[in-house]
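Issue: ligand-bound run for N-oxalylglycine - logging full I/O for the record.

Environment: standard queue, default settings, no custom constraints.

Inputs:
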Amino acid sequence: MTRTMMSTFKAADMTGDRLEGGGKPVACGNKSTGCNDPRSDQFCAMSARECGLIDRSKQMLCEPPQGPVVMLIVLQPIQVGRERMMMECGNMSDHLPSRDGLDVIKTGKGVGAEVREIELRTLDDEQFADLRQAWLDNLVLLVRDQSLADADLIAFSRRFGDLDLAPIQESGRRFVEGLPELYIVSNVLEGGVPIGSLGNGEAVWHTDMSYVEVPPQASALYALEVPPTGGNTSFIDMYDVYDTLPDALKVRIAGRRVKHDGTYNSGGFLRQGVTPSDDPRESPGSLHPLVYTHPETGRPALYLGRRRNAYIDGLDLADSEALLDELWSHVDGDRFGWSHEWRKGDLVLWDNRCTMHRRDAFDPAARRVLHRTQIKGTGRPA
Ligand code: OGA
Ligand code: MN
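Outputs:
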């Protein structure tokens, strides 16, 4: 079902080509109108108006001054107005350096932003604090053109907190020698044995490692080798999914817990050491609240983990299945998500508490190698 939905889920307008060339593009990502055209700076009011995000008085603040005298008088209001408008147009993007100096460009797809012109190996503390805030605000960050050795990826990830050890690879290999934090996502075989996990098929919507009691707060995935096409990774904003549920459904799930299954990974592979079971009441996993209040933003997110072997605690199996199907029908990547086309050197960092992700299949003959770290959560989801 989600597969069909995702087949039309095209890549974001964030490849950058249209955003470069000296202008100061503005992309409005109003999901309800589907408006996401990057515009030059002078069109920012129009772009916002098209998106229905501001009224006429606020557009005036954003339009260019008409002459030198006016310019002198209104210079300050323009600045103020511009900032205010951008706050009101919460999902509008802008190519100006933000107050904090980072160059953050929203995808315009409801989740995610690219941070340009930074070098993750050498971020100073102030830049790091700004990056962290941009991550909380945008849920998923893309940083392109990085050159990270495994030790660099681990050191960068550690700035967010302690790391979880990687889950066991599908081959049964416990750890990468000397780097137990490193999880390898790859279809490459060496001596007939996969060097990593998830193969080349679709990986279904999921949250990383939510079958443990304290799932990671974040994952950082870095691309070393990518196929020319396919293997895109999509992200969905689970705050938005929750916010837009019908009120009656919110009432029905309030206070309920859901089993996050640990039997199968998102590629459908049985986890090593686990007895296969398709009875969600019996299978290994952890119970978490269906509505997870993000410990840092305070916002509620729908917390589903993954569909297979999920079970809503305390319900008959049939009722649990029906309620889960109803909830999953709101997981609409076209409406709430963004799909990323990888390039070598991309680092993507996601907030694992309020997003889910999935991956498209790709040509089995192509090589795809990504290295991941997972940053420990600070407590049980609540
Ligand atoms: C992951 C994951 C998808 C991908 O690393 O957690 O789900 O793009 N990866 O390979
Ligand atoms: Mn994953």
